[in-house]
Design goal:
Helix content is 65%, strand content 0%. By secondary structure, the protein is mainly α.
Length: 69
């Protein structure tokens, strides 16, 4: 990705908060969401919903592995 591409992305989607999120920042947040599911923080959710959430979070982690940090 060139500097010009990055500048266009930043103009279109200005960073919220500190800066652009990197893989090393994003991956632990996904694992934290999975931990919340294991701990049972979603009391009203059915087992099917939790299984689906785990499945989708695992897919996000697999996609994230395609990128360098």
């Amino acid at each position: 990705m060139s500097d010009d591409d990055l500048k266009r992305i930043i103009q279109k989607y200005p960073p919220s908060g500190r800066s652009i999120m990197k893989k090393v920042d994003f991956e632990p947040r996904i694992h934290h969401l999975k931990s919340e599911l294991y701990r049972g923080d979603y009391d009203g959710a059915s087992e099917d919903w939790k299984d689906g959430a785990h499945y989708m979070l695992n897919r996000v982690l697999m996609i994230l592995q395609e990128y360098y940090s």
